[in-house]
Design brief:
Blueprint: H1 16-25, H2 29-42, E1 46-48, H3 58-68, H4 74-77, H5 80-84, H6 109-117, H7 124-135, H8 147-157, H9 164-174, H10 187-196, H11 203-214, H12 216-220, H13 224-231, H14 235-246, E2 269-274, E3 277-282, E4 290-292, H15 294-302, H16 311-351, H17 353-358, H18 369-376, H19 380-389, E5 391-394, E6 397-400, E7 408-410, E8 416-418, H20 419-432, H21 441-450, H22 457-466, H23 472-475
Parallel strand pairs: 2-5
Antiparallel strand pairs: 1-4, 2-3, 5-6, 7-8
Helix pairs in contact: 1-16, 3-15, 6-7, 7-9, 10-11, 11-14, 15-16, 16-18, 18-19, 21-22
């Protein structure tokens, strides 16, 4: 027998205003202007311009009309379901962090390859196979899908039955296109294609081809002595061949104009030093002048004189209220974004004051997100959104905010120093090492401890990886 029961639970849910603020907060300055234009296009109740009143916005006056007028109470006209599901531009699955940065003008990689495909004398089936293969090429220029999977795609989507040999034959033709190395299925094949395309090549290219085709594993691990023994060459011959290989492009897709992503690092803040007095200002693009449209407010007031039972009027009131609410929320979110940015940056400047006076990296203190969150009384996730997508312009360069955050390392004197300082020391040791006998992580640990930094070998390895520096064996040079 079924029983009915009542369960009470406590949950937390973000309001539309909070969602709007969070999404705007993580938008970089380079995209904010475009984001505002989008909202202006979809919401006629929002327009550019300074608000007319000093404290109360027009939208707040409109809100009063909703509740204070006895003749027409908009809430009487509207059920909650009529507007609760209204989504502002940017809600739903719209993710600001996944938006592409501006891309330079020019044709895409696929377009360039399709153009080259047109110069081949292919029959209809081969051309369809070629287009399918080109469509499978990833941004770096490789085809990583199995050819059998591409054959299945052709069968299901194009109704074309083909063989592996036929697909490979077309693939080899595409691999002859520019840029050299395109449509390779592995790094080894990519390098081989580029070496095969070299014209008037000498002995060093012939040896390079043998190294890639016969000793690729030894080459990637820099076991040069094994290569010399296997191919019967001396160190000088090997050095010339290795130099030829290292000049090849491991990511041929990234060199085409259509895939060059131009990322603009626009500062969100501008910091000036006036005789030791630091002055922080927001980039003007972060402080747009927005207001609720007066014409929409007037339109709303005109409904007081209309028939309250008119169905079309009810629909119109619903639409106008949605747009007025969305406009107010957006304006408030932009203002809250500005205030949060200023509060966060002011806290960072106060924490790292000595550094911002002259830009000396050794004066950077250890600082984590929690430190700033506690100062301004906000959640760590909010500070993270600001730090990961914002930058500041100083008199000594433009820096992303995450540059100023680092862990602390204790020294022999008992002081805490920034991990950035330790990383710079580590980078310097590796830059100055004898490349024929590169320093291991154990030796680097001892060198750092000799400098007074108490650091473990695993931490040395972690910092080395963060600096994108390979292990000693892979740093070895002839």
């Amino acid at each position: 027998m079924q029983k009915l029961g009542l369960i009470q639970s406590l949950g937390q849910k973000l309001s539309p205003q909070q969602i709007q603020f969070i999404k705007l907060l993580q938008v970089p300055t380079a995209e904010l202007e475009a984001r505002i234009k989008e909202e202006l296009e979809v919401n006629p109740a929002l327009e550019e311009g300074r608000e007319e009143s000093s404290e109360e916005s027009t939208s707040e006056e409109v809100s009063k009309e909703d509740t204070s007028n006895d003749e027409l109470n908009v809430d009487d006209y509207l059920n909650e379901d009529d507007y609760a599901g209204y989504k502002m531009q940017g809600d739903g699955n719209y993710n600001e962090e996944e938006r592409d940065m501006p891309i330079s003008s020019g044709s895409s990689l696929q377009e360039q390859l399709i153009d080259q495909l047109g110069f081949l004398k292919l029959d209809e089936t081969q051309e369809i196979i070629g287009r399918q293969l080109i469509g499978s090429i990833e941004a770096d220029g490789y085809i990583r899908r199995d050819l059998e999977a591409i054959m299945n795609d052709l069968a299901f989507s194009q109704n074309i039955e083909t063989s592996l040999d036929e697909v490979e034959a077309v693939l080899y033709k595409i691999q002859s296109f520019d840029p050299p190395g395109i449509a390779a299925r592995s790094l080894k094949e990519c390098l081989c294609i580029q070496l095969d395309k070299k014209e008037n090549h000498g002995a060093e290219v012939d040896l390079a081809q043998k190294i890639v085709s016969q000793c690729f594993e030894e080459f990637t691990k820099k076991h040069y002595d094994k290569i010399e023994k296997k191919l019967g060459v001396d160190e000088e011959q090997l050095k010339e061949a290795i130099h030829t290989i290292t000049k090849l492009n491991p990511k041929p897709g990234g060199t085409t104009d259509g895939l060059v992503r131009v990322q603009y690092l626009l500062p969100d803040f501008i910091l000036t030093n006036d005789d030791g007095k630091l002055e922080l200002t927001l980039n003007s693009k972060n402080a747009p002048e927005l207001r609720v449209s007066p014409s929409y407010s007037d339109m709303f007031q005109s409904y007081h004189k209309s028939d309250k039972k008119d169905k079309k009027l009810k629909e119109t009131v619903s639409f106008v209220k949605q747009k007025l609410d969305a406009a107010k929320w957006f304006i408030d979110a932009v203002k809250q974004r500005q205030q949060t940015l200023l509060n966060t940056m002011n806290a960072i400047i106060k924490y790292q004051y000595d550094y911002f006076l002259d830009g000396d990296e050794t004066k950077l203190k250890p600082m984590i997100l929690k430190d700033i969150a506690e100062i301004i009384g906000m959640d760590i996730s909010t500070i993270s959104r600001v730090a990961n997508s914002k930058a500041i312009q100083t008199e000594f360069g433009i820096f992303p905010l995450k540059y100023f955050f680092s862990e602390g390392i204790s020294t022999d004197s008992g002081e805490d120093v920034s991990s950035r300082e330790v990383k710079e020391k580590l980078r310097k040791f590796i830059e100055d090492e004898d490349k024929s006998k590169p320093l291991s992580d154990d030796k680097l640990e001892k060198l750092l401890k000799a400098e007074g930094y108490n650091i473990a070998r695993r931490t040395v390895a972690k910092y080395r990886e963060q600096l994108n520096l390979p292990v000693a064996r892979l740093r070895k040079e002839l």
